[in-house]
Queue: 2 jobs
Job 1
Amino acid sequence: MLAAMPARSSAPPDKPKPSEPHYHGHRERLRERFYAAGPDALSDSELLEMALFAALPRRDTKPLAKTLIKTFGSFAEVVHAPVARLREIDGIGEAAINQLKLIAAATHRVAKGEVNSRNALSSWTEVIDYCRSSMAFADKEQFRLLFLDKRNQLIADEVQQTGTVDHTPVYPREVIKRALELSATALILVHNHPSGDPTPSQADIQMTKAIIDIAKPLGIAVHDHIIVGKSGHASLRGMRLI
């Protein structure tokens, strides 16, 4: 006996649902850890992964984050790396580079706001953090001046000179001239060592003393000369070199 066959349906078969990207669950777990335990619960590489989510929404950011950390050393060094060097990394793209530079700019802007809103000398940690975020990872030497009033409030923050990888020309009389223009009564000198080692050179010490010698008769104090590098910072005042 032949069995009756069921009527053929005219409706098209259901299409298989697209599977979630393999990295989707990983992203969610990172976000949960970030919000539950805070950023300190994430490694530099994991934090960098999250920072790249917006720039690379359809890619697994983990391999790129690991490559960047391996190449440059840390989260801070990645976001402050020169654009030309970032472009050498395979698969990074302009969107990711823009995201990293946005983070670097935001970090600098926040640190600058903290320095501007506080007494510079009673918030020494903020001054150091600001100087490091601004200059420690630059690939050329910069000479920066923080001009203070008689209450040690910040009047202005200016980069006076940008030099080469290991030298910046500094003109002591120009430093004092600018201080007089701003009616500053004190200065903090800052420069960076792109080599990473913040140890002051003999030229750094001599230049600082030359500025002090010109400033003192005019009633302008030089509170310190801070040198920043990737591995930390050095204070000439703290080292009793001035």
Job 2
Amino acid sequence: MSRQVGDGAVLDRQRGWVDRLPPRLRDLAVLARWDRPIGSWLLLLPCWWGLALAPAAPSPWLYLLFAVGAVAMRGAGCTVNDLADREFDRRVERTRNRPLAAGRIGTAGAVAFFAVQSAVGLAVLAALPRVAALVALASVPLVLLYPFAKRVTWWPQAVLGITFNWGALVAYAAATGGIDAAALLLYAAGVFWTLGYDTVYAHQDKADDIRVGVRSTALRLGAASRIWIGGFYGVMLLLLAASGRAAGLGWPFYPLLALPGLMLAWQVARVDLDDRISCLRHFRFHREIGLAVLVALWAGRLFTAS
């Protein structure tokens, strides 16, 4: 079981199998955030939601394919993000010891590593049906623009949500050959989910962000953040219910959707937005919330309404 580093250099750094790698490989793994799998989970789960929503059960191969793609593209995205933010990261307590910010990896090495991870992502893309591959390619501008959003808008978390949940559309298209209203509602639900959990995450850095001069919903919403986060989660649940109805999911979907609803309500009530450890712990809890949504979708599909 992984545990958090106690030296405080990088608040959300976790120890585990990555620390058994040689130093150079370890730095590459940290650059790709392999030591912090929660980001890959949050990228993957909307993909699995899209597969679970499909009218016919998709091949298990697609679940595996999207898992590989999520790890590769999350790592590639983090590499681009750290390349864009390395000067900012040097001035933020939580990120100043990241490999690029600390100078343990140079720009050329990071670009080469990005190319390798992108090649894996392209291999996954090539294995998808043509329609799904085209939908996936449409997200590339979003992936490239996101690292710069915090410089120009108070809502970079919205840009992340639009980008990070695109996999729901790709997966649904891979399973069905197209996109319909149910898929779009599911995607929108994911966007509001990300708005909530990434606002919690952003509260870790609000003091540093003010000093450095970057923007976030944590700063924009301030003392009202808890109310807004609760609102984001409420809209997410309404959109999930609407997606299930549009897809014709059976009755078990709706009572089972109450479980992630209760988990989200508990988080809104309990998270301490002025405590970095509390924010990080509640952020990581969204893997379980996303899995609870997935179970509800599976159950609803098993008992599809006639």
